[in-house]
Amino acid sequence: MTKLTLLETPDPKLPTHESYSPFCLKVHRALRANGLVYERRTAGRPDAWRQFNPTGQVPVLLVGDRSIPDSTAILQEIERITGASIAGSTAAERAESWLYEELADTSLNGFLVASRWADERNWPSVRAAYFHEMPALVRAIVPNRLRANVLKSLVARDVWRAGADACWSRFRTLLDQLDRRAPTKGYWVGDALTAADFALFGQLHSLRTELTPWQREQLAERAALNAYLDRVHEATRVGPRDAPSEGPRAKGALLGNIPGDPARV
Ligand SMILES: N[C@@H](CCC(=O)N[C@@H](CS)C(=O)NCC(=O)O)C(=O)O
User: Fold this and answer.
1) Ligand 1 mean position to 34 CA, how many Å?
2) Which residues, including other chains, have CB under 8 Å from residue 139's CB and lie 6 or more apart?
C-alpha cells in the first residue's frame, strides 16, 4: 500500500476537531471513513506547503511522492485508491452528492470564513487562536492586515457585500433549508457516507467551536441538521490521537481510520 501523508495547518488540540481548516477536516473524515491509514504533517501556514501546491492552500495529500492538492481532488483520489464510489451508487446519487459537496465548499465556506474573520463578536478569539504563537510585535500588525484582505475577498464573493445583517439573514435561511432537507437516519444521499457528508460536515462542524458561539447556537437550534452532524461525527471521529508531526522533516503520527473502534472513539 502506497504511503499517504496529509499536509495541513496546526492541530488545534481539540477533542472534537482535528483542524480549524474545514477542508482538512473534510479530508480527515473521508480518509478515516474509507479505512485509510495516513501520516499527518503540519506547518504554521498553508503556504509552507507551496512546493506541493502552487496555490499555497491546504490540504494536500501525498500519495507516495505524488502530491494531490485540493480537497475535492483528494476525495476523487480516495475513490481511485479504494476502487469504491465515494458519492453513492446511482448516477442520480452521485450527481446529488457532488452538488452538495460544491454547495458546502463554496456557499457554506463563505459563511464560515465570515464568521471567523468578519464577525466582530468572534474576531478577538479567532485572532488569539490563530496567531497566539506570533511574536507580540508582529501580532500587533499582521493579523489585522490579513483580516483586511479576507474582508475584501468576502465582499468579492458577495458574502459580506451587503453587510453583517444581510449575511447572517442569508445564513439562517440556508440553515433552515438544510435542516428541512437533513435525513432523519443514514446520511445525506443514502445509507452510506459520501462526498456530500464529508464536505457538509467539514464546513458545518467547523462552525461548532468556541470561536463562533452565535453560529454554533444557530446550528444547535436546527435539530435535524444538528443530529445529522452528530451522526457523521460519531461515524468518522477518532479517539485520543497522537500529535501530528511539526515541520517538513519531523516524523509524523500515523492515524488509522477504524469507524466505531472502541479503542479509538
Ligand atoms: N478548494 C480548496 C480550498 C482550500 C482552502 O481554502 N484552504 C484554506 C484553509 S481552510 C487555505 O489554505 N487558505 C489559505 C489561502 O487561501 O491562501 C480545497 O477544496 O481544498
Assistant:
1) 22
2) 131
Q: Is 247 in the pocket of ligand 1 (CB under 6 A)?
A: no
Residue 76, ligand 1, Cβ within 6 A: no
pLDDT per position as a tens digit, 56-66 = 999 999 999 99
Residue nearest atom 3 of ligand 1, based on CA coordinates: 70
What pTM was computed for the model? Answer: 0.91
Indicate whether residue 71 lines ligand 1 (CB < 6 A).
yes
Q: Ligand 1, from 8, 26, 57, 157: best to mutate by most atoms within 8 Å of Cβ? A: 57
- Sorted by where each starts, the structural domains of the chain and their CATH numbers stand as 4-255 (1.20.1050.130)
Query: Does residue 12 have a cis bond before it (omega within 30 degrees)?
Result: no
Task: Map 65-116 to HEC letters.
Answer: CEEEECHHHHHHHHHHHHCCCCCCCCHHHHHHHHHHHHHHHHHHHHHHHHHH
Q: Per residue in 134-179, pLDDT tens? A: 999 999 999 999 999 999 999 999 999 999 999 999 999 999 999 9
